[in-house]
Each structure stands twice: as C-alpha cells, then as structure tokens.
Amino acid sequence: MTDLYFDFLCPYAWRGVELAAALRAGGERFRLRHYSLVEGNHPGNASELTWRLTEQPHAEGSAAQQGSLRAFVASHAAAAQGEEGHWAFTLALYRAVHEAKQPLEEATIMAAAETAGLDLAAFERARADNDARRAELRAELDAAREVGVFGTPTFVLPTGEAAYYRFETLTRDPATAREWWTLYRTVLTSEAEIGTIKRAKNRPPRKGA
Amino acid sequence: MTDLYFDFLCPYAWRGVELAAALRAGGERFRLRHYSLVEGNHPGNASELTWRLTEQPHAEGSAAQQGSLRAFVASHAAAAQGEEGHWAFTLALYRAVHEAKQPLEEATIMAAAETAGLDLAAFERARADNDARRAELRAELDAAREVGVFGTPTFVLPTGEAAYYRFETLTRDPATAREWWTLYRTVLTSEAEIGTIKRAKNRPPRKGA
C-alpha cells in the first residue's frame, strides 16, 4: 500500500488524489493521509515545532488555517465510515474547492458529505467528537513529519521511497494514470538515485505542450 | 544541442558533466555553460541582483567565491582552445576537486589544464585577459538567470524544457547514461506537465538501493 499525503488547500494534491483514484480502479492500493501546509510552512516551525494546527481554536487564524483544520477534521469523520466513503468524500470536497471553486468552509464540506453519500447523522456525530478527530489528525501530521513531507502530494511507496510529485495535468483516465505513476516510480527506484528533478524558474511545464 | 549549466563547486554538477560526457560518446551534443551558486544563493540577490561574482576582486571573499571565480575564468580560457579542450579541462578539474578532493585553487587548475593537454602558454595568455573572460562569464550568468537556473546541473533541452537534475550515482557507462538521460527527458516532456519530483526530507535516495 502507498501512502498519499495531501492537504485540501493544494491544487497539486487534488491532481495526486485524482491520479490515485484512477489507479485504484486498476487495483493499486493507496492510503489517504493528511499533511498540513499551514503547519509545515509556519514561520514558528522553522527550527523546531512550536505551532501545531491541531492546537488552534476552530474560529481563529487565516481562512487557509481555519478551512484546512475544518476539512481535516471532517475527513477523519468521513474515514470513520470506511475506505470507500473516505475516498468519495475526499474527491467530492477536492472537486468542490478546486474544480467548482467553492470556498473551503462549512457549507462546502456538508455538500461534499452529501455528494459522497455519507450517513450525515453519523458524520455529524463523528465531527462533534472534536478531541478524538484532532488526536487522529495529530498522529498523521506526526507521521508526515517523520517521513519529512514538505509539500503535497507526497507518495510513500510500500518499499519506503517517498517524494513530492507535482504535475499540472489532471487525468481520470486509468491508462494515462498508470503511465504517469510508472514514470514517477521509475524515477524513485532508478539506480541513478535521483533526488530531485525540478523545472528552472522561468521554464515551467508548457500548458498543452 | 542541450545547454548544461554547471558550477565547479557542485558535486551533483560533476555527475551531470560526466553523464553528458558519456552521452557525447554516443553522439548527443551538449554545450558547457556556467552558473554561479555563490551568486545565485547570495543573500543580497534575494529580491534583485545586487551582488555579481564577475565584479568581485580575485583575492577577496570566501574560498568558494574565490575558487569558483578563478575556475570559471580558467574554464573560459580553456574554451578558447576549442570544444574538446574545454571538455577535457572541465572533466579534469571536476575529477581533481570532487574525486581526488583537491582544493579549487590555482595549483589544481594548472594541473587540470596540463591533464587536459591544453597549450599552457595560450591558456595563461587567455586567463591574463581577465576583463574579456569576466565579460564572457557575465553573459553566461545572465543567460542562466533568464532561464531561471537555481542549481546545478541544469539542462536546457533543444526544445526549451529546462530542469535541475540531481542524482547520487556517477556513471561513465554510455548505456547507463543513455537510460538516465531518457528518463529525465521523459519526465520533462510528459503530458503530465511535471514540475517537480523531489524526495521527502527524511527519505533520501538509498545508497546501493
């Protein structure tokens, strides 16, 4: 099983989740895991961990902070309804935010839960147990820190290799997803021991190239 | 022709130059070009360009600054003796510094010129025309800035794609070099429009993996 670290704030993580969803259709297995960009990039955490997302009040901080915390808690509540429900909720919320351009806030989260076909009463009860959901989230953010995740999406292969994989094109086609996934794994397992391939600043990938 | 940006300070650029040298044996064409890490990473250049390597006195600044400026000027002097002489000098100096662990300073540079079979009198004359060599260097550093090079080695493909390519394993085997080069080009030209593949911080490539 491959771990897939994501943050609902990130449009590249959205592409990564869609890629994984397309690969699941072909039998590849992924575990959805959370990584927080606002925590990872927080200036207070530059040398040591002093600012934790999971210790912030729900109604304080930037829109990105409040939205991502709320979405992560909801994601853990969705996970309580099983793997398929979690995937359906994750995809529905990503599409609402990054495709339909809805704000990452309460109404969007509830609509995603409905789209995903979750048991809404159970979802609400799971969200209301805020301490438990935050504890689950904290454990995942700790796991991400141990791997050294710094951006999303980051995949951790069953064999231990792990890397950030940023690409522009969204695909839901299983054959295309398979090709891009094979390319990524080939880079990570090459005997060249590749650490980084990163575009020069003024030569981003060409749209429609 | 592919442009290959390098800095003699950088052990990853050494691997890149060796890779290109192995590919040249198979007919692939590369142009050696300079990029300065001390200039690119200088705190004074964070928002705009205020500190230029080419404007620094030869005997001032850190060992990295003095050594890289001296090596770049020598590299331009070697280039004046033609493409093959430039490659021979570049490889000889890289191997002296990163394989034999010699310091990047005058004696090492002269020994590399001798190893490369350069006309030493002509090499000395070309180096002595310091203003001309610095002007050549400045033009290359400007070209690198236009591409948005931020580290070495960076390759700029004939079709315009450009990316930093960092890998751990040195190869001089043409077939292996061809495989790693094909992988890099596949990433850069994939319809996924890949911007970055970068290992998680605590999961570097495994030595001997």
From TrEMBL, chains A, B:
<feature type="domain" description="DSBA-like thioredoxin">
    <location>
        <begin position="3"/>
        <end position="160"/>
    </location>
</feature>
<protein>
    <submittedName>
        <fullName>DsbA family protein</fullName>
    </submittedName>
</protein>
<dbReference type="InterPro" id="IPR036249">
    <property type="entry name" value="Thioredoxin-like_sf"/>
</dbReference>
<dbReference type="Pfam" id="PF01323">
    <property type="entry name" value="DSBA"/>
</dbReference>
<dbReference type="InterPro" id="IPR001853">
    <property type="entry name" value="DSBA-like_thioredoxin_dom"/>
</dbReference>
